[in-house]
Specification:
It contains five helices and eleven strands. With 261 residues, the protein is an alpha+beta fold. A hairpin with a 2-residue loop joins strand 1 and strand 2. Helix 3 crosses helix 5.
């Protein structure tokens, strides 16, 4: 399947991102700490993103349903509440989700300092479904690539603050703050990048990093952060999208991993 064009989808991207931040703020309430801050992350599912099972003190699960442009709360007793994203700002979406949880008997009180947006969330369901197709296709390629690696790795997750999906591969150890590792991921766009892109970087940056041979379609990133970028539109031109991305990331890993040992 070809990747969707994702043209003129800026408002949808922003709206989905802000909705993910709402879920993320609730997700980390009373969450049991996990290595490398994974208790802050959301899980990729065929419908979009999920909080997974919330802490027992809260209960239930939150789903960011891309196809229906909604946040869905399923309480432990099975009652389901669906809150349409386009009817809200980030602030009122938070209010509506918390109200649904409280009515189901599971009140929550998240830190709202970073979920205070007041602009209307202009999520177009058709564009959100296109992004669902794109993000899940790339998730599948990342999972296939990850399955070919040896060593310690984190799960593939989505980080609400940046809205990127990624995983870590460790040369040794399992602590991203001190152990050498690589990060592979997909961003729908970020400061300096108007279009989606796939990225890879190493930490700490090893000697010889910028001397490796890059696969066709990949390019260096040196401003703001140091790494390797494969632009979404470049990947979309490949004949077999998932196989091509899997191959490109394997080439990048094979070139950089020996530099981290």
């Amino acid at each position: 399947m070809p990747l969707p064009a994702l043209s003129d989808w800026g408002h949808t991207r922003i709206g989905l991102h802000q909705a993910a931040q709402v879920i993320g703020a609730i997700r980390k309430l009373d969450a049991a700490p996990l290595p490398n801050y994974l208790h802050y992350a959301l899980e990729v599912v065929p419908e979009g993103l999920t909080s997974g099972k919330l802490a027992p003190s809260i209960g239930g699960e939150l789903l960011l349903d891309y196809r229906n442009a909604a946040v869905v709360y399923t309480c432990p007793e099975g009652t389901v509440s669906s809150i349409p994203i386009p009817a809200h700002t980030q602030t009122t979406l938070t209010d509506a989700v918390l109200e649904a949880m409280a009515k189901a008997g599971h009140p929550a009180n998240p830190d709202r300092s970073k979920i205070s947006g007041t602009d209307s969330l202009r999520v177009h369901p058709g564009m959100a479904e296109e992004y669902l197709e794109a993000s899940y296709s790339i998730y599948t390629a990342l999972a296939r690539f990850k399955a070919r690696l040896f060593g310690q790795m984190s799960r593939i997750v989505v980080w609400p603050h940046g809205f990127d999906q990624s995983f870590l591969w460790f040369a040794r150890g399992f602590n991203e703050e001190k152990d050498p590792h690589m990060n592979f991921g997909f961003s729908p766009g970020s400061p300096g990048f108007e279009r989606p892109y796939i990225y890879a970087f190493a930490h700490p940056l090893p000697p010889g990093f910028f001397e490796i041979h890059l696969p066709a379609g990949a390019r260096w990133q040196k401003e703001g952060w140091s790494g390797i970028v494969i632009d979404y539109d470049t990947l979309a031109a490949e004949e077999h999208i998932e196989a091509a991305l899997e191959r490109h990331l394997l080439d990048i890993h094979r070139a950089i991993a020996p530099l981290l040992v």
